[in-house]
């Protein structure tokens, strides 16, 4: 094997990390990376980011019925914002109630405070 052959063998594609993207390799392949609508306004974007952070933080807590209910509502709120760009204001009171119900578990989480603040800014 000559030097040119060794160089050909060493060539290739390396992908170490891909985030927020879609990749396809090979011929005749197709890739789709669909992202829902952006949040309708800055207030809903803040709420979405706060919801995502709180969902992440809830994973560090011991699961209780109150935390499970809160997580379900956060999932629904995230889905609604991603689908429509906003959360229906009728959802805010329920989300605030679930935050209060889970206060013993989430009271020390800054992300829970951020969700409450985002709700207040949206009039909820």
Radius of gyration: 22 Å
Strand content: under 5%
What does the average pLDDT come to?
A: 80
Structure annotation, total helices: 6
| Biggest pleated-sheet summary | none
What is the number of E strands?
Answer: 0
The helix/strand class is: mainly alpha
Summarize the structure.
With 124 residues, the chain is mainly α.
Description of the structure:
The structure is a single chain. By secondary structure, the chain is mainly alpha-helical. It contains six helices and no strands. It has helices at 3-10, 42-58, 65-84, 90-101, 103-106, 110-121. The model has no long low-confidence stretch (mean pLDDT 80).
Annotate the secondary structure layout.
Elements: H1 3-10, H2 42-58, H3 65-84, H4 90-101, H5 103-106, H6 110-121
Helix pairs in contact: 2-3, 2-6, 3-4
Question: What key phrases describe this protein's structure?
Answer:
about 0% strand; about 120 residues; elongated
